[in-house]
């Protein structure tokens, strides 16, 4: 009785792509008989069994062919129970080539019953050798006379079937990738040994003249071979006792060629794989076999960088084990010194780019092996890290990608998260590669485009459809590429590679010698810091041992390496327990080098970082070093002040924001992100924000004492460098306080409250606490320190109309509202326009008054005992000279020339030049001097960590300031000369434009 046909609709739902053909195959006598052996509803059970295959249609076609031989081992596996049947169905649905082999040799199905565990290498070797009649116990096995290459091919294919069955039936194939690659590599080694046994048989007695060792390279050497791949080998020959070298080489070459023929030859039983010897010295142009000494000589004298990278995976796979070991002993040391070759890292990186560039454009987005985000990205990343760091760390010297990646993570060279992501990507890409190759047992690494192939691949990889396959492929590709670029182009690699092997190891003896050679003043103290940072077995200590050899050199390039190392230790003790700090320094060489330069070059920046160590993460890039917009800072300060009911706490929170922005600015300045103007604007914006916050806190504090609402509106007007957006790191905040009584309030009440508020602002912002204080200086107010701390708008108007002097008009040139009531600030600006920009300029008496005042300032305000030529602010040709010259021009001409109406010194100078009030050459000299002296002034504070305007005489301090100005090492004397040259030229211009001195006598009197 014929079983009813399975409906095509049901077959389609069970995954059959051609239900009609499946229906016909199920009805064939052999298939139907096989189904009946499965019991009641046998056809349904067979359909259900095949539906689990990657390609149910292909599996059914193979079953129909196998069923023609009822009672064969393959059929018995199908009708049996247990894992063997699952493996057989998986194979039949995933590999047409293995299915064809089973049809020819159904008895091979017996291997599918083997335990689900890796087959030991010795068993593989013995099985293949016995297959050609050779004795595995022999030191040099020889095949039987009647053995053929087909015996080898059949035995090899049977072992592939066993492995593929276990692999394809695994529901989580990624976990098996390492075992699969290792077993395939061991199987290849067994095949090479067996092919060599056949070759010995063919050569006859002469074979004993040559002791031939076969070294596996590439994936074979690393025990991570694919199902179908070229097998890279190198042949090494030594003569047997009493044999001439030339004869041994000739015999060895004959054996090597025969070995390759047996492996790559083709017959009805198929082929194994090509034996690729291109990695031998001189490649295809070199001799096929060499002695150990010949190999050693080549690698010592001629080998290129890529050849050492290839040697990383070398291992003995066949032939004479002693000769193979001698070869490894001879060449392995060169592998772990190769990174010290000039340009090594760049050469390896360029090699990866060349490999990628040769991928055909149509394959680039589908290449699992060579394309962006493919297997080569993982392998090159791991190998470069191994070669650079493996010189000093033997833990990294594995030829297997996954084992090496584990070691890199375990010993801190790669973060665990990055290593885990890279491993997952690698494993999944290898699964895809294996599944694609198994389909037809062809050497391919390209993701297919045909829908049927994609569907089979997705199911073989355990995914639900082609869309899921494409999505995961693109995600994996992007993630692997991102990690590759982070690790492979890690800037620190080049610096580590340039170290000697001893320096890279950072042994105590090497460290002491290096510290002395690098110029550390206190090598013993530096050693204590090194021991504290790198001692022990913690992951943190391991990463520090990677970083410190390079950092020591970078510290030594700075002006004070000892201070840099000490600051680094203190910073590391604060941050070493965080997840990002050491990882950032290890993975981002830019950040590490920036930190080293900062810690050795600036006590101010080091102190600021130690107050807020988390700011070190800004060093990773430039984005965090860009100053925050003024409006954003005002909003932030307003929010933190509002959260603190206590005025002191509110002011301290506002000062904390300023300290943070000072840190950002200093780091950005030292990292080259900010120029002089950028520093001035950034520090001004932070100071304006803290003044706004301080005023808010003070208003609240006074209101708590006198009651609300307060009878006054207030504004703070910035003066001097604050108003000109030209603050430096140690600048005070020069201000005027302006108030207006509210409607109905008396002048006296408003005045009293305004003075109380201004006093509170000064107290709160200068107050004690961990945050840097801000000196709020109101000395530029009318009547100076003798006048009221705050004035009403009308009081200012009366004063300026009746009593103001030229110096007060000059001070107002840089007046700009910076905090408080914006309408009041705008009203003040309108009020003083006519004062600071007089319509008729200055008369002769007023010009003389400006000149006289400037001369008095030079005479009275210079600190006693200081050489005027070393004072960057008040000295001849310094900041004050340039500013007074520009301000005189503004007072004389801004009434008529509107472009002069700016609070910026350089902006006003440029406007004066444009208006023809200053010659181009004079303007250039003044601009240069002002910039130079301002940069020196900032460098003085950055270097010393304290406010000073005097160029030091101490050589070490001069050297530190010179470095901050971008001058090379040893520029202490050159800094003095450069400063005098620039200021001398500027002073000559100032004497003409400001003092009106045109003859030599007057200039000489000025110098005296």
TrEMBL record:
Region (Adenylyl removase): 1-492
Example of a GO MF term: magnesium ion binding
Keywords of this entry: ATP-binding, Ligase, Magnesium, Multifunctional enzyme, Nucleotide-binding, Nucleotidyltransferase, Transferase
Residue span(s) of domain PII-uridylyltransferase/Glutamine-synthetase adenylyltransferase: 350-488, 867-992
Domain Glutamate-ammonia ligase adenylyltransferase repeated: 86-328, 593-829
Segments crossing the lipid bilayer: none
Gene Ontology biological-process entries: regulation of glutamine family amino acid metabolic process
Pfam families with a match to the protein in the record: GlnD_UR_UTase, GlnE
Enzyme nomenclature, EC number: 2.7.7.89, 2.7.7.42
Cofactor annotation: Mg(2+)
Reaction catalysis annotation: [glutamine synthetase]-O(4)-(5'-adenylyl)-L-tyrosine + phosphate = [glutamine synthetase]-L-tyrosine + ADP; [glutamine synthetase]-L-tyrosine + ATP = [glutamine synthetase]-O(4)-(5'-adenylyl)-L-tyrosine + diphosphate
Top EC class of this enzyme: transferase
Domain of life: Bacteria
Tagged with keyword Ligase: yes
SUPFAM superfamilies on file: Nucleotidyltransferase (SSF81301), Nucleotidyltransferase substrate binding subunit/domain (SSF81593)
Record region (Adenylyl transferase): 500-1008
Function per UniProt: Involved in the regulation of glutamine synthetase GlnA, a key enzyme in the process to assimilate ammonia. When cellular nitrogen levels are high, the C-terminal adenylyl transferase (AT) inactivates GlnA by covalent transfer of an adenylyl group from ATP to specific tyrosine residue of GlnA, thus reducing its activity. Conversely, when nitrogen levels are low, the N-terminal adenylyl removase (AR) activates GlnA by removing the adenylyl group by phosphorolysis, increasing its activity.
Similarity comment text for this entry: Belongs to the GlnE family.
NCBIfam families named among the record's database cross-references: PRK14109.1
HAMAP family, per the entry: GlnE
UniProt protein name: Bifunctional glutamine synthetase adenylyltransferase/adenylyl-removing enzyme
Organism encoding this protein: Pseudokineococcus lusitanus
């Amino acid at each position: 009785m014929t079983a009813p046909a399975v409906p095509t609709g049901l077959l389609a739902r069970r995954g059959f792509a051609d239900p009609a053909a499946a229906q016909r195959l199920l009805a064939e006598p052999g298939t139907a008989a096989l189904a009946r052996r499965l019991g009641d509803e046998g056809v349904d059970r067979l359909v259900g069994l095949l539906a689990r295959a990657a390609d149910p249609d292909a599996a059914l076609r193979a079953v129909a062919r196998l069923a023609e031989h009822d009672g064969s081992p393959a059929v018995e596996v199908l009708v049996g129970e247990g894992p063997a049947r699952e493996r057989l169905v998986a194979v039949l649905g995933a590999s047409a080539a293995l299915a064809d082999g089973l049809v020819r040799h159904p008895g091979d199905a017996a291997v599918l019953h083997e335990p689900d565990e890796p087959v030991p290498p010795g068993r593989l070797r013995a099985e293949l050798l016995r297959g050609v009649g050779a004795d595995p116990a022999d030191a040099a096995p020889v095949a039987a006379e009647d053995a053929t290459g087909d015996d080898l091919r059949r035995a090899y294919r049977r072992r592939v079937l066993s492995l593929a069955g276990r692999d394809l039936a695994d529901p989580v194939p990624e976990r098996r990738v390492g075992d699969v690659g290792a077993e395939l590599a061991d199987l290849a080694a067994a095949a090479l040994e067996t092919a060599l046994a056949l070759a010995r048989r063919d050569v006859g007695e002469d074979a004993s003249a040559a002791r031939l060792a076969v070294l596996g390279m590439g994936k074979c050497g690393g025990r991570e071979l694919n199902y179908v791949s070229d097998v890279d080998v190198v042949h090494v020959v030594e003569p047997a006792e009493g044999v001439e070298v030339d004869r041994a080489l000739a015999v060895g070459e004959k054996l090597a060629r025969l070995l390759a023929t047996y492996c790559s030859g083709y017959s009805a039983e198929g082929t194994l794989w090509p034996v690729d010897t291109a990695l031998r010295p001189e490649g295809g142009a070199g001799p096929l076999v060499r002695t150990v000494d010949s190999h050693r000589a080549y690698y010592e004298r001629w080998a290129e960088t890529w050849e050492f990278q290839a040697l990383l995976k070398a291992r003995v796979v066949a032939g004479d084990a002693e000769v193979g070991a001698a070869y490894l002993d001879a060449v392995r040391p060169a592998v772990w010194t190769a990174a010290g070759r000039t340009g090594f890292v760049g050469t390896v990186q360029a090699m990866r780019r060349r490999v990628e560039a040769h991928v055909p454009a149509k394959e680039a987005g589908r290449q699992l092996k060579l394309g962006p985000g493919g297997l080569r990205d993982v392998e090159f990343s791991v190998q470069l890290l191994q070669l650079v760091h493996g010189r000093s760390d033997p833990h990294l010297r594995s030829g297997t990608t996954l084992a090496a990646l584990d070691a890199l993570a375990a010993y801190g060279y790669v973060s665990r998260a990055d290593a885990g992501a890279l491993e997952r990507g690698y494993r999944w890409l290898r699964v895809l590669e294996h599944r694609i190759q198994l389909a037809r047992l062809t050497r391919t690494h390209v993701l297919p485009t045909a829908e049927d192939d994609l569907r089979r691949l997705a199911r073989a990889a355990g995914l639900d459809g082609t869309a899921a396959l494409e999505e995961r492929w693109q995600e994996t590709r992007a993630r692997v590429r991102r990690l590759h670029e982070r690790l492979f182009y890690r800037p620190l690699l080049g610096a580590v590679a340039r170290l000697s092997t001893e320096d890279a190891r950072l042994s105590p003896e090497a460290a002491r010698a290096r510290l002395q050679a690098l110029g550390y003043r206190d090598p013993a103290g530096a050693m204590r810091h090194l021991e504290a940072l790198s001692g022990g077995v913690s992951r943190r200590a391991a990463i520090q041992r990677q970083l410190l050899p390079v950092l020591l050199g970078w510290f030594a390039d700075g002006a004070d390496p000892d201070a840099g190392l000490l600051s680094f230790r203190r910073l590391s003790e604060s941050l070493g327990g965080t997840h990002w700090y050491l990882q950032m320094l290890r993975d981002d060489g830019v950040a590490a080098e920036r930190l080293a330069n900062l810690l050795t070059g600036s006590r101010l920046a080091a102190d600021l970082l130690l107050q807020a160590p988390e700011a070190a993460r800004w060093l990773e890039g430039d984005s965090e070093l860009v100053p925050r917009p003024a409006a954003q800072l005002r909003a932030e300060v307003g929010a933190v002040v509002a959260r603190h009911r206590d005025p002191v706490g509110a002011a301290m929170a506002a000062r904390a924001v300023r300290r943070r922005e000072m840190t950002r600015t200093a780091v950005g300045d030292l990292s080259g992100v900010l120029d002089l103007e950028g520093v001035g604007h950034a520090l001004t914006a932070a100071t304006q924000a803290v003044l706004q916050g301080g005023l808010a806190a003070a208003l609240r504090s006074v209101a708590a004492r006198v009651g609300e609402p307060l009878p006054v509106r207030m504004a703070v007007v910035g003066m001097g460098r604050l108003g000109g957006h030209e603050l430096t790191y140690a600048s005070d905040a020069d201000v005027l306080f302006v108030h207006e009584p509210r409607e109905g309030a008396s002048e006296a009440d408003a005045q009293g409250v305004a003075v109380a508020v201004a006093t509170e602002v000064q107290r709160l912002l200068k107050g004690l606490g961990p945050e840097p204080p801000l000196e709020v200086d109101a000395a530029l107010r009318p009547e100076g320190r003798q006048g009221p701390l705050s004035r009403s708008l009308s009081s200012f108007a009366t004063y300026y109309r009746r009593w103001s002097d030229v110096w007060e008009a000059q001070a107002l040139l840089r007046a700009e509202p910076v905090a408080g009531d914006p309408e009041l600030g705008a009203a003040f600006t309108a009020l003083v326009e006519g004062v600071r920009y007089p319509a008729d300029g200055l008369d002769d008496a007023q010009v003389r008054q400006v000149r006289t005042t400037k001369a008095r300032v030079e005479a009275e305000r210079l600190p006693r005992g200081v050489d005027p030529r070393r004072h960057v602010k008040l000295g001849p040709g310094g900041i004050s000279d340039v500013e007074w010259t520009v301000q005189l021009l503004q007072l004389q001409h801004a009434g008529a020339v509107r472009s002069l109406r700016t609070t910026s010194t350089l902006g006003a100078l440029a406007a004066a030049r444009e208006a023809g009030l200053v010659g181009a050459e004079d303007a250039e000299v003044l601009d240069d001097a002002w910039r130079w002296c301002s940069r020196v002034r900032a460098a003085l504070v950055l270097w010393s960590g304290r406010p000073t305007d005097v160029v030091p005489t101490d050589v070490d301090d001069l050297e530190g300031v010179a470095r901050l100005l971008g001058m090379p090492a040893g520029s202490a004397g050159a800094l003095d000369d450069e400063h005098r040259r620039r200021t001398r030229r500027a002073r000559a211009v100032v004497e003409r434009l400001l003092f009106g001195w045109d003859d030599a006598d007057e200039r000489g009197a000025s110098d005296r």
